[in-house]
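Reopening this one. Same input as before:
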Amino acid sequence: MAMSDSAARTNTSASCLRVVVKLGGDVLEAGALAELASALASSELVGRGVIVHGGGAQVTALSTALGLQTRMAGGRRITDAATLDVMKMVVAGRLNVDLCAALSAAGLAVVGLHAGSGVIRAARRPPRVVSGGGPDPIDFGLVGDVTGFDRELLEILAQAGRLPVLSCLGLASGGAVLNLNADLAASQLAAALGAQTLIAVTAVGGVRRDVADPSSRLTRLSVAEARAAIASGTVTGGMIPKLEEAAAAIEAGVGQVEIVKPSEVGQAIAQPGSVGTQLVA
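Same output, byte for byte:
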């Protein structure tokens, strides 16, 4: 997906922020936070990095507990008003707080940011055809497309020795809050900052020919190979938007995208391509 004009314009000057780390909800469970925080603390992110996190698994769990139906299309959530309330409670609330607390306990100086801060600006997404979602346009409801970022705020925090931690909600005109795909937000932020590396952290840790077989991991993919894997059905579900947004980030100037496990974050930053799956132009 191409960046909006306002997002692209932020990529006109040098940034001290060179690494964007995207954390999926599958690595934010309470039992795994300490290991994740330790890996991030050893990665020298402060002053040159930003974290963006999702929380899809936790949103689905609370929605189910509340008797709400979860609807997905092409690995993307269709969001009604009740689901958006769950997103606010889970993503901008519990997960952001718990992640920031774990990172602080690991010695990192962090600042948690949510949609109300305006750090991510968005506009409601019109109905569209998406990969894996069938031939007809889909109305995703209260879901946004990124229109820009408050890069000045992120730079100020980085220069002050703080690590920004962004939840995947966007602020639209009139104060409306919209659900954002975290992979989309992270890839477009990386492009807007002119980042060298985008790191997507998942429990699986890489793209596999067979999801159930760790030995089938693909170590390196070009953008063309990634799109061919989506078209052939080799990649399915939530990995589709990850690869699509990773490809868009590279085409917008990001050097490489690393898809890794939580324990591999530090190595992925220090030695790109040495772990997980690396996506390159």
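So the earlier flakiness isn't reproducible anymore. For the record, The chain has a mean pLDDT of 90.
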